[in-house]
């Protein structure tokens, strides 16, 4: 009698916002190599426009999501709730063996909560990061998602220690490295072929890059204004490329700061850039100023000095091992640290352990072992 092979366990990988997509690429590549599991991509639509989502599908060759929930912007509670309602229908219609979430955005928490409520095990990629600043929406998402997860894939040893301290059973926690760096390493060469420096009229190592979008920096007139004053000084020393996040663009208008920014003639404002252009820009920058989580990591991987315009970081490994310095929004500190970098005294850093391009593969192997036929 012939026996039909058992169906492969399906993983639903939920993504929603820009930084999720770079991480998803590494996971999809790894699952594609491990034939023992199938992976279905679900996009919540938290980020929906081309520049924040579509372009990355094109550039990275990500598969069209099996389901697009089309949620869009909303207040945090309404957005989270709407994702939950829609995602519950997706899981109920065809329950997978596992729900995988990445990062720390609202989609991460919403999808983890739905999986856990339906009794479907949840895996969290980028588990254990902690800023200990509960005014950050992302910190709430991180802590709550980690409480719900059955598999916690940590990018660094500090993340493992945080989870240990919170009483998460060690058997659930796996130090696997950083999937965002898998994607960066795999695209470095392609990115170097981008002509973005030529398009913006820049010379290698003779410009800075700035990104800003955290509510703590762009939602209040005073703090955003102070950051723009520091930028005023920096752009007198070298041109600064500033791809403006849609959230930041809206706040510039609301706070009446557009004019102040427009008067800085060596600040090159652009739309949010594609991944390959942005990677090329970072790789050849003299310095990067940012409040992004992912950019702190990518600059460490590229050995490019990074000043983090926040009061804390959930990624201390980028400070201890890498090129990152947390400077907050204090203009004196920002200027002193910028001077240090321009004088050639910036941090060179070294790569944190396991940031070797193989994090996705480690995750896939653990899940194949735990979900595969031998495990049942
Ligand atoms: N990024 C990009 N274009 C840009 C700015 C950033 O492709 O104009 C990439 C960046 O290289 C990183 C990711 O977007 O891979 C970071 O996303 P974001 O800063 O929005 O999120 P965070 O990491 O702070 O959660």
Structure description:
- With 376 residues, the chain is α/β, with parallel strands linked by helices.
- 48% of the residues lie in helices and 14% in strands.
- The protein has 17 helices and 13 strands.
- It has helices at 18-33, 50-60, 76-93, 106-117, 137-148, 157-165, 179-192, 196-200, 215-218, 221-237, 246-255, 258-262, 275-283, 293-302, 317-320, 331-342, 359-371, and strands at residues 10-15, 38-43, 67-68, 98-102, 122-125, 151-154, 173-175, 208-211, 240-243, 267-270, 287-290, 306-308, 324-326.
- The strands form two sheets. Strands 3-2-1-4-5-6-7 form a seven-stranded parallel beta sheet, with helices on both faces. The protein has a six-stranded parallel beta sheet with strand order 10-9-8-11-12-13, sandwiched between helices.
- Helix 1 (18-33) links the parallel strand 1 and strand 2 (38-43).
- Helix 10 runs parallel beside helix 16 (331-342).
- The longest helix is centred in the first third of the chain and has 18 residues, at 76-93.
- The radius of gyration is 21 Å and the shape is globular.
- 49% of the residues are buried.
- The model has no long low-confidence stretch (mean pLDDT 96).
- It binds uridine-5'-diphosphate.
């Amino acid at each position: 009698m012939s026996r039909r092979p058992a169906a492969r366990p399906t993983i639903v990988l939920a993504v929603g916002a820009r930084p999720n997509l770079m991480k998803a690429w590494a996971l999809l590549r790894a699952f594609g190599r491990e034939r023992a599991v199938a992976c279905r991509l679900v996009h919540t639509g938290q980020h929906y426009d081309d520049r924040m989502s579509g372009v990355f599908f094109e550039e990275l060759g990500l598969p069209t999501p099996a389901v697009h929930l089309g949620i869009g912007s909303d207040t945090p509670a309404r957005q989270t709730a709407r994702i939950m309602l829609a995602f519950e229908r997706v899981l109920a219609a065809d329950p997978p063996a596992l729900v995988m979430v990445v990062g720390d955005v609202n989609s991460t928490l919403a999808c983890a909560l739905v999986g856990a409520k339906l009794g479907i095990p949840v895996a969290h990629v980028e588990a254990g990061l902690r800023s200990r600043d509960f005014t950050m929406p992302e910190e709430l998402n991180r802590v709550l998602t980690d409480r719900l997860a059955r598999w916690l894939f940590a990018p660094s040893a500090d993340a493992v220690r945080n989870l240990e301290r919170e009483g998460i059973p060690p058997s659930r926690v796996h130090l696997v490295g950083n999937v965002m760096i898998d994607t960066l390493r795999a695209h470095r060469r392609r990115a170097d072929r981008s002509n973005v420096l030529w398009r913006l009229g820049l010379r290698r190592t003779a410009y800075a890059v700035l990104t800003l979008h955290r509510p703590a920096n762009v939602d209040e007139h005073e703090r955003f204004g102070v950051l723009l004053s520091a930028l005023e000084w920096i752009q007198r020393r070298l041109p600064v490329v500033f791809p403006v996040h849609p959230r930041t663009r809206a706040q510039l208008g609301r706070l009446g700061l557009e004019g102040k920014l427009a008067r800085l003639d060596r600040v090159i404002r652009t739309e949010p850039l594609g991944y390959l252009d942005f990677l090329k820009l970072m790789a050849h920058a003299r310095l990067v100023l940012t409040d992004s989580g992912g950019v702190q990591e990518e600059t460490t991987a590229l050995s490019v000095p990074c000043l983090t315009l926040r009061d804390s970081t959930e990624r201390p490994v980028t400070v201890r091992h890498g090129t990152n310095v947390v400077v907050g929004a204090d203009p004196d500190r920002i200027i002193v640290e910028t001077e240090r970098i321009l004088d050639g005294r910036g941090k060179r850093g070294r790569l944190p352990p396991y940031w070797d391009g193989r994090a996705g593969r480690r995750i896939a192997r653990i899940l194949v072992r735990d979900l595969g036929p031998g495990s049942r």
